[in-house]
Each structure stands twice: as C-alpha cells, then as structure tokens.
C-alpha cells in the first residue's frame, strides 16, 4: 500500500536526519522532495499546496521539543499534518437511535459496492450486531444473485427486492423497514446500482431511496486505484445526494495514495474503512494516524516521540537539568538517568534522539550496551548514599567492597567512576550550562 509514496517520503526523512539544524535552505529542499512525492502519488494539487504551506510555517516556527532533534521535529510535523489530511481521529460508524440503522452504499460501477456490503456486514456482525443485506441494483438480475451469494457464504440474511415491487417504491421500502425492525435486524445494509459515470438517472434513483429510507450513513465507495477520478465522482455524489462517509477499496493494489490523501478535504467526509482485497475479511477500520505512520514507515520513531512527550519523563528531565545547572549531579542521578535510558529503549535510540552537535557530539560514539547499563546499575546500588553523593570518597578498600557487593570486577567500577566524572565535567562546561541557562 502506497509503497512508492512511502519510499519517496522516506528519502526526504533520511535527508533531514542527516541535517544538524532546520534552516530555510534545507527545509526548502525537503519540502520540494515532499511536494514531488505527493504529486507523483496523484494527490490533488491544491491539497499538496496547502499541506506544504502548513508544514513550512510550523517547521520554521516550532520550538524544539525536548528529546527530539530538529529533523525529527519536522518529521513529526509532517506526520501530524498527514494524519490531519487523512481525517484526524478515527470516526466510527453511526448507528440510529431507532433501529434499524440504514447504511446505503453508493458509487460508480465496479468500485466495489457489492463486495463492500458483504465485508461491512461481516464486520458489524463481528461486533455483535445483526445486519440484513438488501440490493437495490434492480436493472441487472445478476446483481441480486451476487449479493445473495455473498450473504449466504457469510451465513448472513439477505432480503429479496424485485423491480416489480419497486414499481411502488414507497410501499416496498416501508415494508422492508418493517421487516428489519420486526426481526431485530440492525443495521440494514443497502447495495445500489453503479454507473460508468455520474448521470441524472442514477442520481434520481439514489435520491428516491435515500429520501424514503433516511439512511444514517450514506457511504461513498471509491476505487482508490482510479485516483483523482474517485475524488471527483465523490464530490459529485456529495453535491447531489449527500454523503456521510467514504470507504476506499482496492488499496491492496498499486494505488498511489492520491485518492486517500485528497478525498477527505475534497468532500469533507471521513474515510471510515478501507478495502484491501477481494475476500470478505479484507476490510480494515481506517485510522488516519496509523495510516500516516504507515505511509512514513516510521512506527519506531513515533513511539520514541510519544515517550519523549510523556509528561512524567519531561518533569524528571527538567529536574535533572536543574541539578546539572546547579552542579549537583550525583551518582544517584546518574543511576536515574540510566534507568530512564532503559525505559526509553536502547542507548543507541536515545543517542539518536539527541542533537548530534555541540556537547552531545561525542556521545554517539560512546556505545554503551544494555548489559553494561545493568552492570552500572548494580555497582551504584552497592554504594552507600554518601559515596553516591561524593565519589571522591571511593578509595581502594571501598571499591573492593563495592566489587564484592555488585559481583563486578574492580576495573569496571573504576571505569564507571571515570565515565561519571567525565560526564560531570561535560555538564559543567559552559556550552551545556548555556543550553540550560533558562532554568533556575
Ligand atoms: N483487490 C481488490 N479488489 C476488490 C476490492 N473490493 C472490490 N474488489 C473487486 O472489484 C470488483 C468489483 O466489485 P463489486 O463489488 O462487484 O463492484 P460494484 O461497485 O458492486 O460494481 P457494480 O455493481 O457493477 O457497480 C470485483 O472483482 C471485486 O472482487 C478490494 O478492496 N481489493
Ligand atoms: Mg454491485
């Protein structure tokens, strides 16, 4: 799904990661890469323009979030904006307070309406509901059969509708509604006919069904592989019948993403599900945020961002920074830092999150492995509070005692003390103190 777009955006992110700071110049370069990636993916031109403008504004105006380097900051902005144009938060299906809730699926010929009726029925049945399937595609006799077969294969009920009954549509539809209500079916999933193009006959027919049934969801089913055509026809359906939601199908194919990335802003309607295959189980709830992460291929980065945003971590980090500022940083703090690192994942991850410049430059090379961190922790645990507060107390006999207590060799204890002293020296340096200057 969206492989090409993903690949191109990943290139942009790689470029940004190699940069130390966000500048007008490298942002312009990154934005150009992004613009080409989106246009290539057949995203609507206007959507791309607005997207780019918002990212430029935010990226150049943003305060750097603690724990994220500037490139990651920009990547986070791109991710959030991508999630926003995909619709923001996930929007669940609406259900009517007076059952049956009616879901009417509309769209062009071959977009996947009938298949999606089956998938959707299966999905809602999985949530404990009792869906009833009905088809209003009356011109093609095979259409009724198609949905009937799907219903049978899923073990779900199907309601037979005929052209003869639809001669008096109002009565036929009221009868159907009563049938569903009396038997406790909810929702009623309504398949409709498709046309090659939007035309008056189809729209009149759909409007009639809509007016009588008053569906709680009018769902546009669009073939993602048709890109901007799917978007344009969605706009026509929205203008002429009114939509409440969108389901994009065939995202398993070589869809370039253009439809998904344009349709929400073009119609103002959320994408609620996506079809990712022909089989009845190939329907996924659409989560804009997750889709954005998937497109950017950055699940790992996001979880780091989440951790960095964790309030508790922030508070602790600030307190630690204050202690460094006041030059009160002790081995006890060092241990806390180590614990924090363990919580955040590997040390390499942590180093990757620091700006690779200034006082932190050398750190990337200080590849401390996880096992070593555990050993350091054991050593510090074997010290007395006084020793932790002032490692100058650590003479030979104390070091020997700590070695016995922690089960680590003396040279490792020496190494830890040395690293701690180097760290403290670095923390006293004017550049670090300047960085922390805002803190009291
Ligand atoms: N790969 C893939 N194929 C799909 C998906 N959804 C539907 N299809 C296929 O698309 C074709 C058309 O699907 P239908 O459900 O018959 O489309 P329709 O909108 O009901 O078509 P009409 O009734 O003729 O307007 C079928 O071959 C489906 O198997 C999907 O998510 N992925
Ligand atoms: Mg059909």
Q: Would you write up a description of this structure?
A:
- The structure is a single chain.
- The protein is an alpha/beta fold and 440 residues long.
- The protein folds into three domains: 3-89 and 297-302, SRP54, nucleotide-binding domain (Four Helix Bundle (Hemerythrin (Met), subunit A)), CATH 1.20.120; 102-286, P-loop containing nucleotide triphosphate hydrolases (Rossmann fold, 3-Layer(aba) Sandwich); 310-435, Signal recognition particle, SRP54 subunit, M-domain (434 Repressor (Amino-terminal Domain), Orthogonal Bundle), CATH 1.10.260.30.
- It has 20 helices and eight strands.
- The protein has helices at residues 3-17, 24-40, 45-61, 70-85, 113-126, 141-154, 169-182, 200-213, 228-240, 258-267, 288-296, 299-309, 311-325, 331-344, 347-353, 370-381, 385-389, 396-406, 410-428, 430-435, and strands at residues 102-106, 132-135, 158-159, 188-191, 217-223, 245-249, 271-275, 283-285.
- The longest helix is centred in the C-terminal third of the chain and has 19 residues, at 410-428.
- It is elongated.
- Residues 345-368 have low confidence and may be disordered.
- Bound molecules: guanosine-5'-triphosphate and magnesium ion.
């Amino acid at each position: 799904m969206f492989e090409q777009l993903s690949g191109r955006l990943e290139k942009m992110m790689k470029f940004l990661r190699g940069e130390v700071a966000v500048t007008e110049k490298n942002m312009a370069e990154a934005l150009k890469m992004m613009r080409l990636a989106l246009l290539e993916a057949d995203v609507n031109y206007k959507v791309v323009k607005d997207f780019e403008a918002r990212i430029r504004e935010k990226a150049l105006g943003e305060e750097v979030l603690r724990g994220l380097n500037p490139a990651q900051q920009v990547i986070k902005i791109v991710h959030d904006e991508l999630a926003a144009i995909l619709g923001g938060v996930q929007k669940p299906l609406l259900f009517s307070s007076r059952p049956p809730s009616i879901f009417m699926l509309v769209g062009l010929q071959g977009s996947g309406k009938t298949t999606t009726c089956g998938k959707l029925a299966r999905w809602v049945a999985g949530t404990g509901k009792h869906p009833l399937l009905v088809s209003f595609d009356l011109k093609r006799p095979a259409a009724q059969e198609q949905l009937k077969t799907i219903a049978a294969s899923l073990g779900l009920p199907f309601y037979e509708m005929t052209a003869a009954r639809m001669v008096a549509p109002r009565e036929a539809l009221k009868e159907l509604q009563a049938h569903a209500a009396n038997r406790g079916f909810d929702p009623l999933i309504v398949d409709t006919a498709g046309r090659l193009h939007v035309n008056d006959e189809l729209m009149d027919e759909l409007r009639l069904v809509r007016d009588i049934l008053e569906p709680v969801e009018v769902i546009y089913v669009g073939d993602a592989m048709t890109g901007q055509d799917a978007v344009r026809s969605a706009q026509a359906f929205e203008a002429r019948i009114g939509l409440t939601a969108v389901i994009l199908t065939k995202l398993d194919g070589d869809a370039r993403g253009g439809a998904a990335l344009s349709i929400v802003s073009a119609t103002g309607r959320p994408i609620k599900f996506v079809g990712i295959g022909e089989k009845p189980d190939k329907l996924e709830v659409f989560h804009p945020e997750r889709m954005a992460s998937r497109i950017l291929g950055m699940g790992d980065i996001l979880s780091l961002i989440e951790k960095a945003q964790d309030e508790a971590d922030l508070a602790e980090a600030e307190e630690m920074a204050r202690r460094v500022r006041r030059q009160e940083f002790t081995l006890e703090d060092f241990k806390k830092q180590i614990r924090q690192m363990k919580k955040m994942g590997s040390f390499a991850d942590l180093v990757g999150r620091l700006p690779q410049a200034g006082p932190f430059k050398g750190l990337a090379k200080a590849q401390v492995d996880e096992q070593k961190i555990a050993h350091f922790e054991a050593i510090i645990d074997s010290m007395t509070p006084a020793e932790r507060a002032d490692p100058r107390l650590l003479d030979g006999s104390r070091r020997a005692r700590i070695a016995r207590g922690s089960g680590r060799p003396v040279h490792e204890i020496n190494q830890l003390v040395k690293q701690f002293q180097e760290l403290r020296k670095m923390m006293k340096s004017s550049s670090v103190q300047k960085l922390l200057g805002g803190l009291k």
